[in-house]
Amino acid sequence: MATQLLRALGPLRLLQRSPGSAADVPLRAASHGTGLLYPEHIPTSPLQKALLAVGSAGMALYNPYRHDMVAVLGETTGHRALKVLRDQMKKDPEGAKILQERPRISLSTLDLGQLQSLPEGSLGREYLRFLDVNAQGPHVANGAVLDISHRLHQTSRDNRVECQRKRVSPDTRAPTRFVDDEELAYVIQRYREVHDMLHTLLGMPTNMLGEIVVKWFEAVQTGLPMCILGALLGPIRLSAQNLQVLVSELIPWAVQNGRRAPCVLNLYYEQRWEQPLTSLREELGITDPPTPH
User: Distances from the Cα of 198 to the Cαs of 12, 195, 257, 264, 268, in angstroms?
Assistant: First the structure.
């Protein structure tokens, strides 16, 4: 029994390897070795997927900052939801173009100088501001002002610690590995790479409270079990004060906006950098978040 379990969990050990430059490579159907559908693909059986899902769920709940475990959970439980999202993209002109061209978002594909030169309030400039605040190190944008005070609603020492631990950039998103369909693999990769864009659209910080709010929006938008699980179980880590604000104000706001907005995966963000963020929010029907008390 122990031997069978070790064999089933074998693919999990491969997560320790470096992702390399996969963030710059479009996911395409191709032969990358026996049974491989795309560069980082790790073929797995249904049993292996089930064990990976259980193990990654436990680790993600224990430590929400284990992005690799969150990624594994999404890939091993999201097949049906990914098919629905893929079909939605195919039916939308902008979404279909994304599926055809397979753009990737990473620090090497972003023109940071261009984003820096965009007008204040544009999507690109606000996204760059988000990266300035949340990315590790000074390599994200030269000369940008790091003003974190108005971005994070920190009301306790715990939130300040969260801010120090939660550092993100486009390159911190794990490559897809366990999805056995290269088109669906791209869909979930695209979802990961636009996650920070959703923070920008919703005006949410990357502390625990902000992440849970975004997860509620994503759960409504995508139907991914990973998002639903995070939305439902994430609040157990919140303080009583933040939990009250979440339940009474932020969850209703996130659910309402998630239902009203069209599929956010159908937005070709890279071709909308110059669009004012307020204009994009109006187009999507996204309202301003409740003012924190």
Answer: 29, 5, 12, 8, 13
CB contact at 8 A, 11 and 41 = no
The neighbour count for residue 96, using CB atoms within 10 Å, is 13
State which H helix or E strand residue 201 sits in.
Answer: helix 195-202
Q: 114-146: buried (b, 16+ CB within 10 Å) or exposed (e) per residue?
A: ebeebeeebbbbbbbbbbbbbbeeeebbeebee
- Tens of each residue's pLDDT in the chain, 293 residues: 334 434 555 555 555 444 444 555 556 655 444 578 998 999 999 999 999 999 998 888 788 778 889 899 999 999 999 999 999 999 999 999 999 999 999 888 999 999 999 999 999 999 999 998 886 443 333 333 333 233 334 433 444 434 444 567 777 788 999 999 999 999 999 999 999 999 999 999 988 999 999 999 999 999 999 999 999 999 998 999 999 999 999 999 999 999 999 999 999 999 999 999 999 999 999 999 987 55
CA atoms within 13 A of residue 196's CA, in its CB half-sphere: 25
pTM for the model: 0.81
* Alpha carbons 44 and 189: distance in angstroms, whole number: 18
* Residue 28: C-alpha distances to residues 14, 17, 38, 48, 104 (Å): 21, 22, 6, 24, 12
- Residue 270 CA to residue 37 CA, distance in Å, equals 26
CB 40, CB 177: distance < 8 Å: yes
| Tokens describing residue 136 | 């590790």
- Which amino acid makes up residue 52? L
> What is the C-alpha separation between 219 and 277, in angstroms, rounded?
23
Q: What is the largest CA-CA distance in the chain?
A: 61
Q: Which residues of 215-251 are buried (b: 16+ CB within 10 A; e: fewer)?
A: bbbbbbbbebbbbbbbbeebbeebeeebeebbeebbb
